[in-house]
Amino acid sequence: QVQLVESGGGLVQAGGSLRLSCVASRSIFSISVMGWYRQAPGKQRELVARFGSGGSTNYADSVKGRFTIFRDYAKNTVFLQMNSLKPEDTAVYYCNCLKGSADYWGQGTQVTVSS
Fold first, then answer.
1. DSSP structure class, residue 85
2. 32 touches 89 (CB < 8 A)
3. What pLDDT score was predicted for residue 98?
4. Close Cβ partners of 55 (under 8 Å, ≥ 6 residues apart)
């Protein structure tokens, strides 16, 4: 089992930056797929960025060039650096990982971008 704890959300003006953190309860070396999703009010949860199996990295088209996902194995942490934030980035951001056949989610952290 894996527990995921997110932090770093908040209120920021358009054009600003935030860095989200997701700390896993076990070594992320053993986790094949890990990343970030978001859900805005009235919308479906969507992929933002993730590390896929085989070392691939995937980004939603809407965040390419603005967001960067990276990880620190020593801290069992995956980060999401968000730059040039837009009001449409407002959502609850969730950390997710897939280990074997099990899917794990964090509790979410709110990101609000004001215009």
1. -
2. no
3. 92
4. none
pLDDT value of position 53: 83
User: And the tokens for 44?
Assistant: 């479906």
Residues 6+ positions from 81 with CB-CB distance below 8 Å:
17, 19, 67, 68, 69, 70
Task: Kindly list the averaged pLDDT for each block of 10 residues, start to end, along the chain of length 115.
Answer: 96 98 93 94 97 90 98 96 98 94 95 97
Question: In terms of Cα–Cα distance, which of 26, 5, 40 is closest to 113?
Answer: 40
Residue showing tokens 């970030």: 36
Identify the pLDDT of residue 101: 87
Residue reference for tokens 């960025």: 49
Please list, in sequence order, all residues whose beta carbon lies within 8 angstroms of the beta carbon of residue 13, skipping any fewer than 6 positions away: 113, 114
